[in-house]
Amino acid sequence: MSKILITGGTGxxxxxxxxxxxxxNISYTIASRKNKSGASxxxxxxxxxxxxxxxxxxxxxxxxxLATDMKxxxxxxxxxxxxxxxxxxxxxxxxxxxxxxxxxFAYYQQKLASxxxxxxxxIPYTILRATQFxxxxxxxxxxxxxxxxxxxPKKIIAQPIQIEKVAEELYQLSLKQPxxxxxxxxxxxxxTFEEMAKEWMLQKRKKRLVxxxxxxxxxxxxxxxxxxxTEHKQKDGLTWKKWLESxxxx
Length: 250
Ligand SMILES: NC(=O)c1ccc[n+]([C@@H]2O[C@H](COP(=O)([O-])OP(=O)(O)OC[C@H]3O[C@@H](n4cnc5c(N)ncnc54)[C@H](OP(=O)(O)O)[C@@H]3O)[C@@H](O)[C@H]2O)c1
Prior knowledge:
single chain, 11 strands, binds NADP nicotinamide-adenine-dinucleotide phosphate, ComplexI_NDUFA9_subunit, NAD(P)-bd_dom, NAD(P)-bd_dom_sf, protein-containing complex binding
């Protein structure tokens, strides 16, 4: 049986992956910066501060790298790679984001550099680039539309996806031999932020005066030009509307 490590196993995507592994009776270790409950399947490590990584990755066959740091994602990934032995028989499955090579956004540049580090490392890998999770878009609207008057960036086109479908794809990819390739996955429909916000307000029964702010320059062109979208659509996942209808956190 494979020995599995999940960095970011405590995060949104990590939790969805853990559910799939549990359902399939597959054991795993979660890497986290803390283990307050003292669970036996948690390895305490900090990817940015480079602590505990070697011990956590030792003897693992599959490493799902889902942990992220908005400012130091590349450093975190580099530290992980350095702790891994290139000659070890390991499959690194990394979650990335659709459009990171075309959207000039600081965090995306970090993710892109992380991808490059992985490709250069000599460690067998699969990269999966996903579009935005429904939960992420929901969090954005919760913040931007918290008050009666909300400011919303104009004309961003996104293709939100059900997080469980991304987790399922990661799991399926981990079962295959690593081909050192990059795949993409996106939701079944693309919308503008305005369309998604309208549906969000409807479902959450919130009335907001929304002021749409234009985004200028290269970032605006990328967002408006659909660079966050992919043709690799997940057909049977929940659409934004269906996800909002089913969202227990409403
Ligand atoms: N959100 C989206 O829409 C979206 C779309 C496509 C791809 N992605 C990618 O999917 C991945 C997971 O996203 P998510 O939304 O599930 O993230 P999340 O809920 O914010 O979770 C972040 C995870 O990173 C871990 N982490 C943070 N700093 C760490 C450090 N220094 N050392 C070790 N672990 C650390 C956290 O673990 P502890 O707090 O337990 O230490 C946590 O489990 C990210 O790589 C992101 O780029 C996200």
